[in-house]
Amino acid sequence: MPIIEDLIISKDTKLIVWEISETINDLKTEVMLSEDSLKLLHQRKSEIHKKQFLAIRNILKELSIDDQDLVYDESGKPFFIDGQNISFSHSDKYAAVIIGKQMIGIDIEIRRDRILKIKEKFLGIELNYPGDLNADKALIYWSIKESIFKTVGNSGIDFKKNILVLPLNLKKNITKSWFIDDHEIYSFETHFKITKKYTLAYVIKG
After folding, report:
1. Alpha-carbon distance 61 to 151, whole Å?
2. pLDDT, tens digit, 9 for 90 and up, residues 114-172
3. Rg of the Cα trace of the chain?
4. Which of 129, 176, 178, 187 sits at 20 to 30 Å (Cα–Cα) from 104?
5. Do the Cβ atoms of 106 and 88 come closer than 8 Å?
6. CA 111 to chain centre
7. Dist. CA 154–CA 130, nearest whole Å
8. Nearest CA to 200 among 109, 134, 121, 119?
9. Is pLDDT above 90 for 74?
10. How crowded is residue 90: how many other Cβ atoms within 10 Å of its Cβ?
């Protein structure tokens, strides 16, 4: 079964992670794509990008959501016609979707050490926290900030200056995070997970 995580976070919020093992044809035959989605699929050149796109649509089907109900705003942020919120992410052979009534964001990343080479580009005060900053922690900080970026939908966000994440609670897999700029402050309920293959984070606006 391609679904490897199926979480009911609350009565209004659900999360699914899909491990892609199917062919493009297998993924495509399982869903009914809208004309807009067919255009988006054809714009993707590589096989893995096509598979990731189709895996997201298969997750929507598992959530009993019609692909035609998914639309995008001018910034490219997805949302549903009925006003329900959605966020999705993919990395290599993994895809993840979270839906809910609140503002939400999700990010999944394959575990890799190279994230440490660019940590100064997206971490600010987090670099001063006690303890060693290994690749997994750095990936979680990145995923949390990417999730908040998707939630806020502001293309001008500076990950270092505008997004603050408290130290990670590795026992409970939770922390607290904020988006801060000159006009607004948002707090986020923040969850994360580290597996053998990937890291995952999602945020829910408080």
Report:
1. 22
2. 999 999 999 999 999 998 999 999 999 999 999 999 999 777 899 999 999 999 999 99
3. 17
4. 129
5. yes
6. 15
7. 31
8. 109
9. no
10. 21
CA–CA gap between residue 193 and residue 187 (Å, rounded): 20
Q: How remote is the C-alpha of 21 from its chain's centroid?
A: 20
Q: Mind listing the pLDDT tens digit for each residue in 87-128? A: 999 999 999 999 999 999 999 999 999 999 999 999 999 999
Q: What is the spatial distance between Cα 160 and Cα 193, in angstroms, rounded to a whole number?
A: 22
Joined together, the tokens standing for residue 94 give 């993994």
* CA distance linking residue 10 with residue 12, whole number of Å: 5
Distance CA 20, CA 110 (A): 13
How large is the greatest C-alpha to C-alpha distance in the chain, in angstroms? 51
Q: How confident is the model at residue 84 (pLDDT cuts 50, 70, 90)?
A: confident
- Three-class SS of residue 172? coil
What would the two tokens of residue 164 be?
A: 């603050």
Can you read off the two tokens belonging to residue 152? 């806020």
Mode of pairing for the β-strands spanning 104-110 and 198-205: antiparallel
* Band (80; pLDDT cuts 50, 70, 90): confident
Only one residue has tokens 């895996």, namely 55
